[in-house]
Amino acid sequence: MLPSPDDTTRRQLYEAGLQVRAAVVGEEYVTRVLADTTEFSRPMQELVTEYCWGAVWTRPGLSPRTRSMITLAMLTALNRPTEFGTHVRGALANGVSPGAIQEVLLHTAVYAGVPAAVESFRIAGQILAERSDD
After folding, report:
1. Do 134 and 70 lie in a common domain?
2. The pTM is what?
3. Pairs from 75-78 (Cβ < 8 Å, separation ≥ 24)
4. Is the same domain home to 29 and 82?
């Protein structure tokens, strides 16, 4: 049996997760989400920051760009539009081009379903249009 991590390790993962989360989805987004955290939602935000961003996104096996593309495909397949929109912005920050996002979504349509991909195309198109207005 593996030993459970001590508080220091968990704190280090949380801090690393905060850094990666802010780098991918933006400091403003992270600040807003954490400010909106309630006592009820606090454990979920801690889990997401420590485990998803700290323990997984910091691993060296895949680049942030590749992780972003995988995440877009999975969020499309799972039909999670709110998280998908957040991760489109993150993918762009990680160097994923609009053309690559398009290819990921076309590929996802074949394996996860056209209706899910159509929704993701709609969301990504809105975000890309907003960015081109800047």
Report:
1. yes
2. 0.89
3. 75/120, 76/105, 76/108, 76/112, 76/116, 76/117, 76/119, 76/120, 77/108, 77/111, 77/112, 77/113, 77/116
4. no
